[in-house]
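Field log, afternoon session.

UNIT: design team B
ACTIVITY: writing a sequence onto a fixed backbone
BACKBONE:
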C-alpha cells in the first residue's frame, strides 16, 4: 500500500518575515521559491516610488515604497535612508513577527560540497533557536550541533548558554570586500565552504554584512537600525556595519549571543569598486576612530531594554563622535528618531497586534 508523503511544515512559518530591499524586479525569487514561498515577504522599494516592481506569482508579500514610508512615519521618515539598501530597516519596523531574515536581490541559492541546494533560511532558524556561548569559547565550534559537544574544561555552569539574538550568514563567490580590497583583488572569489557556526565572543566586535542575516526581532529589533546613509549623506555602505557595532555592544550588555558562519548564499555580482570607493572613503578613515569608540563603550546597569541601551548609545555617539564630523550629530539624532518611530509602530503591552497607523502599503 502506497503511503502518502507528508510535506513537513516549514520552521517558524507564521513567526518569520523575509525583508528584501530592492530597486528592480524580483526575478531572483524564482530560485528561492522552494524555500521562501511559505513565508511572508516585506519588500522595501528604494529609489523612484513611481517605478513598478514586479514580484513573481505565488508569493505572499507587502511592498512599501518611499511614499508609503513618508505616509506611515510622517516627519520621522527622515531616519530611513534613501537610495541605499539601509532602507530595509523600515521592513524590520513594520513587521509584526518574532523573527526577521533579510537578503539582497543579488543573492542566489548556493550549493554545499555535495552539490545539494542550501536552505539558508532553515539554517538561520536553527542558529536562532539554539543557544550561543558568548562568555566562554568552545573550540569545537557550536557545541549544540549534532555530533558536537562542550570540550573538556568547559565550565558546566555555563553550558546552558545565552539566547541567540543574531545569525550572521556568509557568502560563496563574491566576497564582501571594501572598495580598496576589491580593486587590489578584482578576480578573487570565495570558494571555501567551512561547515561551521561559532559564537562571536563577548567584547569582540565584528563586521556585520546585511545581505544574508537573520535576527530575533523581539530580542534585538530596535537596535537593528542601519543608520543614515545614501542620498544626502556623506557616507554609504556602512549601514550594516553600524548596526553590527551597535547590536554587539547591546547584546554583550544584555547577555545575548551573536553567531556567524553557516548558512552560505551565492553572491552573484560584485558592485563597482569605483562607485563603492566614493561611498566608502570617509568611512574608511572614520572607522579607525569609530571602532575604538565601540570597543570602549559601556552601558549603565539601569539600561535593561534594547531601546534604553540604544538611546544611551546615541548620547555617547553625539558626545564622542561628533568631533570627527558634524554627520555624527545628525546620525545620533536619527538614532533617537528611529526609536521613537519604532515605539510608535510597536507599542508595548499590545503583543504583536498591528497598530492602526499601519493601513498597509500602497500598491
Amino acid at each position: 500500500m502506497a503511503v502518502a508523503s507528508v510535506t513537513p511544515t516549514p520552521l517558524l512559518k507564521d513567526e518569520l518575515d523575509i525583508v528584501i530591499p530592492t530597486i528592480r524586479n524580483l526575478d531572483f525569487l524564482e530560485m528561492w521559491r522552494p524555500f521562501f514561498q511559505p513565508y511572508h515577504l516585506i519588500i522595501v522599494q528604494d529609489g523612484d516610488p513611481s517605478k513598478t516592481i514586479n514580484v513573481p506569482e505565488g508569493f505572499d508579500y507587502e511592498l512599501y515604497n518611499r511614499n508609503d514610508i513618508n505616509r506611515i512615519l510622517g516627519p520621522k521618515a527622515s531616519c530611513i535612508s534613501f537610495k541605499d539598501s539601509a532602507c530595509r530597516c523600515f521592513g524590520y519596523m513594520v513587521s509584526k513577527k518574532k523573527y526577521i531574515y533579510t537578503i539582497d536581490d543579488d543573492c542566489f541559492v548556493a550549493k554545499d560540497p555535495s552539490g545539494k541546494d542550501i536552505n539558508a533560511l532553515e539554517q538561520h532558524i536553527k542558529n536562532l533557536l539554539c543557544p550561543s556561548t558568548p562568555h566562554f569559547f568552545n573550540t569545537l565550534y557550536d557545541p549544540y550541533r549534532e555530533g558536537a559537544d562542550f570540550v573538556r574544561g568547559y565550565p558546566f555552569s555555563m553550558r546552558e548558554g545565552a539566547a541567540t539574538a543574531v545569525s550572521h550568514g556568509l557568502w560563496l563567490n563574491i566576497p564582501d570586500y571594501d572598495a580598496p580590497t576589491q580593486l587590489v583583488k578584482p578576480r578573487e572569489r570565495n570558494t571555501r565552504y567551512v561547515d561551521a557556526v561559532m559564537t562571536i565572543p563577548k567584547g569582540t566586535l565584528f563586521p556585520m554584512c546585511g545581505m544574508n542575516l537573520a535576527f530575533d526581532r523581539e530580542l534585538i529589533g530596535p537596535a537593528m537600525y542601519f543608520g543614515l546613509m545614501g542620498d544626502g549623506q556623506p557616507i554609504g555602505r556602512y549601514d550594516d556595519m553600524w548596526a553590527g557595532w551597535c547590536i554587539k555592544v547591546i547584546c554583550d550588555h544584555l547577555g545575548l549571543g551573536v553567531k556567524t558562519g553557516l548558512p552560505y548564499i551565492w553572491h552573484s555580482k560584485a558592485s563597482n569598486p569605483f562607485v563603492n570607493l566614493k561611498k566608502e572613503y570617509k568611512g574608511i578613515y572614520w572607522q579607525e576612530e569609530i571602532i575604538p569608540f565601540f570597543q570602549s563603550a559601556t552601558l549603565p546597569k539601569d539600561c535593561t531594554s534594547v531601546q534604553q541601551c540604544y538611546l544611551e548609545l546615541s548620547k555617547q555617539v553625539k558626545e564622542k563622535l561628533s568631533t570627527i564630523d558634524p554627520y555624527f550629530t545628525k546620525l545620533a539624532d536619527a538614532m533617537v528618531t528611529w526609536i521613537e518611530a519604532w515605539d510608535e509602530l510597536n507599542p508595548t503591552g499590545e503583543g504583536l497586534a498591528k497598530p492602526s497607523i499601519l493601513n498597509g502599503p500602497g500598491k
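LOG NOTE: The longest strand covers residues 257-267.
NEXT ACTIVITY: expression trials, pending approval
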